Amino acid sequence: MKKSKTIVWIDDDPRRKCTADDIDADFINVHGEDLAQKAIELLNGPQPELVILDHILDQTAPKNRLFQRGSTIAEAIKEQWPSCPVVGVTNADNVQGIDVRTKEIYDALFPFQDFRQYIDRIDTIKKGFVFVARTKAGTARKLVQLLKPPKDEADRLVAALPDDLKKSFRDKSVASRLYRWIGRLMDRPGFLYDSLWAATLLGLTESGFQNVAGRFEKGKYDGVFVRDDAPRWWSSRLSKLLYKQCKPKSEEMSWHVGRRLRGIKKEHYSRCYACGKQFPDTVAYLDKVNDQQQAMHLECTVLHPRFQRELYFEDIRMMQGQ
Amino acid sequence: MELSDFYPSPSDLIKSELAVLNHLRTDSYIKETHSQFARHASAYYDRNRDGHSRGFEFVSYFDVWHAAMRRQKQGSGKQGKRTPNVRLLLAVRIKLDKRAFSNVTYCLTVCRIRSARITILRKFHFDVTGGTDKSERRLQQHPRSHLQYCGEMVPQMASMGCRETQLDQMHPWLSEPRIFFWPMSLALLIDMALHEFPDDRSKKFRASSEWRGLVRKQEALVLRPFYQKCVDVIVDTRGKNQTLADEFYVG
Fold this sequence. Notes:
The structure holds two protein chains of two kinds. Chain A has three domains: 7-119, Response regulator (Rossmann fold); 126-187, no CATH class; 271-322, no CATH class. Helices cover 36% and strands 13% of the residues of chain A. Chain A has helices at residues 17-22, 35-44, 70-80, 92-95, 100-105, 119-135, 140-145, 154-160, 163-167, 174-187, 195-201, 206-212, 235-245, 254-257; strands spanning 7-11, 25-29, 50-54, 86-90, 108-111, 192-193, 233-234, 282-285, 293-296, 301-303, 317-319. The longest helix of chain A is centred in the middle third of the chain and has 17 residues, at 119-135. By secondary structure, chain B is α+β, with helices and mostly antiparallel strands. In chain B, strand 2 and strand 3 form a beta hairpin. Chain B is globular, with a radius of gyration of 19 Å. Chain B has helices at residues 10-24, 28-33, 35-49, 156-159, 186-196, 200-207, 209-234, 244-248; strands spanning 56-64, 86-97, 100-113, 118-129, 142-143, 145-149, 178-180, 249-250. Chain B is built from eight helices and eight strands; from the N terminus they run H-H-H-E-E-E-E-E-E-H-E-H-H-H-H-E. A six-stranded antiparallel β-sheet of chain B has the order 1-2-3-4-6-7. Chain B has a two-stranded antiparallel ribbon with strand order 5-8. Chain B has one domain (3-250). The chains are: A alpha/beta, B alpha+beta. At the A-B interface, helix 13 of A face helix 2 and helix 3 of B.
């Protein structure tokens, strides 16, 4: 199949062309145009490396609502080019109103207002899709190897792969499905930790962890679809690197040993948000509606009712009520 | 008699204990019912994984409801969730000295959970002595593999709610008798603890094929050579007139 090394941006707002120019995208202005016709022209050409679609295309002609949504075009693109990443953009106000199923048609959906902060991510998506397509992983294990996981986590990662990825890793849509799954790995602590989880594992506050983060660089996730704006660390590599730097004394756990790292002061010691005592060993939401998370003792938390337990992943918890 | 005549090598034993921790840290029953235990299993797995030469450590607990503990006043009805009244504290320490066993201890402590404190009711040590631990000088002969009532506090017990003074009633200074006993392992200890203090879910956990597989592996690793050695001594027909004590007592 013929492929071009281009990003295509389809939009009915010509003012967005300058943003498209910033990322070297071919801008297709569909303002007052027949969107279906433009889509057919696109699909008859070579496969681009990435397509950006405005979600609301109500300035097109004819005024058929079916062809006034980027998601409709995204479906057609995915059918023709399953390995092509499709990113939606829309006004921030619209994002909340779009149903989950429609959102899932896109590989990612970003609000246009903050578009610049997503440019790196779009680049990551583009490169990741190309990389996955080139690699042509022939087994589930090879697919997992794209994440560059710690050796002893590979088996568990293969086991944790969703069934569709385990069974049909040769399917052309594999990059799209892998991208979603990695997004999930990054969201749900377990294999990967964000900076709050990483800090808590080491007995530190997030600012304390920032002081020593450089020494855990080798523990950082740097596999396919790596995101610089949201670093993650392999949880097993964090403890491995920690114990390499500081041998644990008898009865010491990672949250004790982390405090002995060079550059750590008392003010960097983590404390349980709920009871104020030392050595919190988990991270929990403040309550079931609050999005803020803090380090806490496991016994100061309960399971969060909105999250299900998942094998191989940490439980999502919230602070225990009084 | 050498320890290796009836006991696995340090690397085989530690590898096996790590496999048990690896299972416990993700098992759904452990995660759901004993989340603290799963957390400890995960942390100790990471801690022990690359430290074979340093040995192996693990301490955690199960909080369970035990019918024989006549304290339960609330929530004990069929519909209500029974509040745990017993804490089963499990501790393992495999000490190595130059890659050889120095001392191996498996400890089971049974505590009563009161509203404000934990009271120690029973405490047992299952020990295997390697003979290289200089801190463990004993005044008299003892079985290499033995069961000891009480024994001293495991340091982490304090952080899990126990107070050393609670052991006074059991006179922890008295180590005798050290009862000749089969060697213990983590899966065997957990299986025994949950067998003795069961609930409906722990029964299912113990019946799961994965868990039974781990127990059977540790039975084969730890118990089989021990019993084989015992049988060899008992059936010896070379006229030595020896007893198990002759073979297994050292010091």
